[in-house]
Amino acid sequence: LAAWCSVVLAYFRYHKLHQLDVLEAQESQLFNNKRIQRKLSTEAIQVVLEDLRKKGNLEWIDKNKTRCLIMWRRPEEWGKLVYQWVSKNGMTNSVFTLYELSNGDDTEGEEFHGLEEWLLIRALQALQSEHKAEDRKST
């Protein structure tokens, strides 16, 4: 089970994906090896996804559990990377926009550069809970 979780996270990381449609999953190259004609059963896929949810790497988008968000890094881990970058560059107590953090020239080359906004927001919320960031909404 741990191996499957690692494979799923590595696949999503490599392809920079964040969403999975469970109904399409069994036919995806992630769970279906057409060359050797083997695929993971729907039940086994559900077990893998549930384990990822328990570890904090998956959240269901809908109540029917047909679509989910897969986070190959948890928001806390992304937050840590952002905070390390801010600290390393002597920019604590500075104000940043979401755009500056995810798409700015200064963050080019950082792992969080290009991060989807919803995940960046969650990363910053994790930093807020540690009192390492503040949300300063424009007035």
TrEMBL record:
GO molecular function, one term: structural molecule activity
Superkingdom field: Eukaryota
InterPro entries in alphabetical order: ESCRT-II_cplx_Vps25-sub, ESCRT-II_cplx_Vps25-sub_N, WH-like_DNA-bd_sf, WH_DNA-bd_sf
Gene Ontology annotations of biological process type: macroautophagy; protein transport to vacuole involved in ubiquitin-dependent protein catabolic process via the multivesicular body sorting pathway
Keywords: Protein transport, Transport
Annotated Gene Ontology cellular component terms: ESCRT II complex
Gene3D superfamilies: Winged helix' DNA-binding domain. Chain C. Domain 1, Winged helix-like DNA-binding domain superfamily/Winged helix DNA-binding domain
Stated family: Belongs to the VPS25 family.
Protein name per UniProt: Vacuolar protein-sorting-associated protein 25
Species assigned in the record: Callorhinchus milii (Ghost shark)
